[in-house]
């Protein structure tokens, strides 16, 4: 294969946009519904909304990803992931999967010393369990340069040569000694299994609906049934007229529950996580066990000596919407993150209060953004939490600072949600919430959407993203001075078919592509959790959250 024919894939959520070879991406995309054309005079992309009325078919009826055919095709090419040259199905194929014990890495052309700002290259060689070098790519590796003594680390990007070897590239940003670490998150064989489950196994996570009413004798009755999203490929029951359906006319989304034994569909009161269904094959059980996932490789342990230079480290550009996320996006030194995106700064208590003064901050998403809500109350002691008597996990929550005219809000992004029992009526779709905002120069909207969507087809996540984009574009048209900030996914510690970093990387790529050119801020926290020394957790350590909040405040109050 000639050098110009080599296909490469950057294994980070913001890697280079290298489309895969020509291939079929499943069935033809359904024709888009007629769009409502709006006048263009504000410079925003013409992401026109779909009709919002009850005569339009639910999105689930046509498996509608919510994007134009060209956009959807571009996203699928962006998300293309190389893998084994054949389907890996038999238990005996385990021996041919990538082995973290036999794979290794070496520093290329190691020098006696380097200067701050120089690049370092590392070659990763994947081998299977028979110690045979792999001949194809698709493994998910993560790499970093770090110093435990300095509490310093920087994320590296990994280039797949599609032949079993990979090249990791690092920028050396601090003075002192450093080491290289590489870990195998998933083998290419495991990623192939993740792709299968994402496409064909959407009911592997299910939910419980609680119906409440009275029996003929007047006694209280509660009946629990299985619930889930309604989307192509997700079937609760093969029986006709099996289910209660709850259709949102604005988003065209439908939630469905099995009909309760005696109570009517209108008696649905509460929602909670139900459980998981294990549809893994014997081979997949092996590919996802603790010996195969999230393992550090044995490799070159040479120390890297970095000397001072005249290179300026850190960005001096003011924080503004639309800035790209480089790799690396920054680095830690003494547990403080220096950003390469823009001139982020550290906020003391008084600085944070002044930044948020006269602001209305609306935070919507999952529990990692609820962490931000909780942290901001600690960072601004004059903010006082109001008891709205809601459910902690889903909200709504509110905190106010009357003296400085600050109000801070949190609520979940709506169904699906894996959480304890909560009233269904309090679980609003995020795009509907944004549709109801007036916006303005004092309004800050912060959202994310990733952790609760990992069990569904890409088309479902794409549709949810498209609805939020439609709402954000409309908000910025009516109130251009509104600041909209999107938080990326973080690494979670989960490496299984229900929640995997590979799913989340794909979400981040799609989310950034969908909002490219819309005029929003994208706050990358992926690299911040992937390279930190703390053990990965879906809820990052407080020191990481502190650095995330500093970037958030830098977006709100740039220098």
Question: Tags for this entry?
Answer:
12-stranded mixed β-sheet; globular; 559 residues; disordered N terminus; 10 helices; alpha+beta
Kindly summarize this structure in a few lines.
The protein is an alpha+beta fold and 559 residues long. The chain has ten helices and 25 strands. Strands 1, 2, 3, 4, 5, 6, 7, 8, 14, 15, 16 and 17 form a twelve-stranded mixed β-sheet that branches. It has a seven-stranded mixed β-sheet with strand order 19-20-21-18-23-24-25, with helices on one face. A six-stranded antiparallel β-sheet has the order 11-12-10-9-13-22, with no helix packed on it.
How far apart, in Å, are the first and last alpha carbons? 50 Å
Number of strands: 25
Oligomer state of the chains in this structure: single chain
- Indicate the low-confidence ranges by residue numbers: 1-56
Strand content: 25-35%
Tell me, rounded to a whole number, the average pLDDT.
Answer: 89
Instruction: Output the radius of gyration.
Output: 24 Å
Q: Which class of secondary structure composition applies to the elements?
A: alpha+beta
Number of helices: 10
Shape: globular
Biggest sheet statistics = 12 strands, mixed
Roughly how much helix do the residues carry, as a percent range? Answer: 10-25%
